[in-house]
Amino acid sequence: MSEITIYSGETFERVFLNEPNIDLHITQEADSHVKIHLLYLPSKSSSLSLGEGRGEVWVTQAGRDCSTEIYALAFLHGEEKVTTETHVKHAVGEGTSNQLIKFVLADKSRGRFVGNLKIAQDAQKTEAHQTNRNLLLSDEAEMRTQPQLEIYADDVKATHGASTGQLDDSALFYMQQRGIDKQKARQLLVGAFMKDVLATISDETLKEQLLNSIDGVVE
Amino acid sequence: MTNNLLTIKDLHASIGGKEILKGVNLVINEGEVHAIMGPNGAGKSTLSAVLTGNPAYEVTAGEVYLKGQNLLEMVPEVRARAGVFLSFQYPVEIPGVSMTNFMRTAINEKRAYEGKEPLSAKEFLSLMREKKKLLELPDKLNNRSVNEGFSGGEKKKNEIFQMAMLNPCLAILDETDSGLDIDALRIVAEGVNRLKSPENASIVITHYQRLLDYIVPDFVHVLADGKIVKTGDKSLALELEEKGYEGLNL
To answer: How far, CA to CA in Å, does A174 sit from each of A128, A133, B6, B31, B196?
Structure first.
């Protein structure tokens, strides 16, 4: 477990790529900014198998005017399993938090997302968003989603949404009708699904590298 | 000398166990424009879906040949590479896939099928620029996701733009006129007419005579209850407009 305090005026950014165990506890002082990426993108070509992964991110906004961004993306194959847990606590008001969590599950892989969002009674004028979107590429893949929202303040803006679906058959057919191989069409759609998470990475070199690795076609 | 392009023999097809096409026969030669008209539910869109291999439909009997090749044995992407193009009645939005990436993938897959080298980035972009002008589409189109946030008119222009890029031998326009204002209709129809050549043919599916003022057909077929019940020249479309399907005494 690592405990970190982000002091006033500081910005903390970190991208975790294919790290099987993450247990991060962050306390934010006033006017501090946190951006975390939890990425599980085991490369098939390197035959790296993740096995089981678990990432927990605990963030407490202890001062005003903080921002917290948590992005997670897992693209799993075989019997890989990943659990992502986020625990975001707005202890005082006028902070923002934004979470975008996506899983793409092939074969017999398993994904689990626990998203705990707590807005304390004193945390008025908080703005908090949590979105979880999952794509199942096989009938044997499984996703479990547990959003937990505890909102005790009344003057807040909070949204959350969770959905799990499959590739859009009409989009697949449309692409095939233009001569695109079905497998390639699936790749393009999966890449499109994952792009918006990767697009939030601040490190331009890493972002380009990851976007290219999912794309297959360089634009 | 006219060359046969497409032959449909006694085609039957169903969706969800319900028979929609009940024995369609149609012969199309290179250089011809065929209009297919008919009441709602007659099977017009089913015919376009079956010719392009939409997996939602099941062919229960009949044969279809494109330039002598058995079309029904080909998967949808191979039919497309062999030159069958459908301008969709409802073009699909594909968020996150840019027009450039989509179109470049499609063109290069077709070129690989024809045994040609892929286009270079420069050649591809200049082809895009040339064909966009034909449809009066804006340059910003390249970076937008396929059909996402496009107006109804832009979507239909985008279909014809893709047709211009892929240069098919058989274009099927499925109610390309629906939802178009008169200016967009003119641009779309002019685009289609400029793509016409002695080597290709088109099937124009429509409810209204209006489109046929712009894209003049060599033949007009009336499809009713899953069969072609009447065939004529362009005057048949005018007669339909005047008397309706009931007036034909089918």
So the answer is: 37, 23, 22, 26, 23
Q: Contact, B176 vs B168, CB < 8 A?
A: no
- Asked if B87 contacts B174 with a C-beta cutoff of 8 angstroms, the reply is yes
Nearest to A174 among B88, B109, B166 (CB): B88
Helix segments in chain A, DSSP class H: 169-177, 182-198, 204-215
Query: What single-letter amino acid sits at B49?
Result: A
Chain B residue with CA closest to A170: the answer is B92
Q: Which residues of A touch B104 (CB under 8 A)?
A: 217, 219
Name the residue range of residue B53's domain: 4-248
**Tens digit of pLDDT per residue, chain A (219 long)?**
899 999 999 999 999 999 989 999 999 999 999 999 999 987 654 445 668 899 999 999 999 999 999 999 999 999 999 999 999 999 999 999 999 999 999 999 999 999 999 999 999 999 999 999 999 999 999 999 999 999 999 999 999 999 999 999 999 999 999 999 999 999 999 999 999 999 999 999 999 999 888 764 333
CB contact under 8 A, A177 and B81: no
Domain count across chain B = 1
Contact call for B109 and A179, based on CB within 8 A: yes
ipTM of this complex: 0.95
